[in-house]
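Hi all, long-time lurker, first post. I run a small reading group and we've been trying to get comfortable going from sequence to structure in the token notation. Rather than ask abstract questions, I figured I'd post a concrete chain and ask someone more experienced to write out its structure so we can walk through it together at our next meeting. Sequence below, copied exactly:
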Amino acid sequence: MSAQRELRAETTIDATPEGVWAVLADLDRMSEFSPETVRMVPLKRGGLRVSQWYLGINRRKYAVWPTRSVVAAVEPGRVLAWDTKSSGARWIFELTGADGVTRVVHRRPVPSGKLSLLSRAFAPLALGGSEQHADELEAGMAQTLARLKAAVEA
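-- Answer (accepted) --
Happy to help. Here is the structure in token form:
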């Protein structure tokens, strides 16, 4: 499999899309859900909105690195997405609901199929290789959704 493949995880949550959104859109809580995210810090005023910048602090074992992300989509109760400029990847959460249950799809495509040069160099040196890290990211996405589900349903 390719490190540039679209990564994907999904779950269903016993809550409305609005209930899921209330937890998901609080990016201060992302470190509770994502096994690799330590913190997401807004870099501009105005809260969660399209074009907001975030500094992401990530960790895997002993490797710690920053990322800069720009929010690409904010559709309350439907879509949250940001582009991570340092890797070239887009992180997307899509919500669809019916009868009090919400399906959440978490995707990470790499638009135009190209990981950044920084990402292609960093992953082999610090993360055990691009392919291995992509596999870990996909497993981490499933873990993120399981933790989000637990938080929303609590």
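A couple of things your group might point at:
The CA atoms of residues 120 and 130 lie 7 Å apart.
Helices lie at 17-24, 30-33, 117-126, 130-153.
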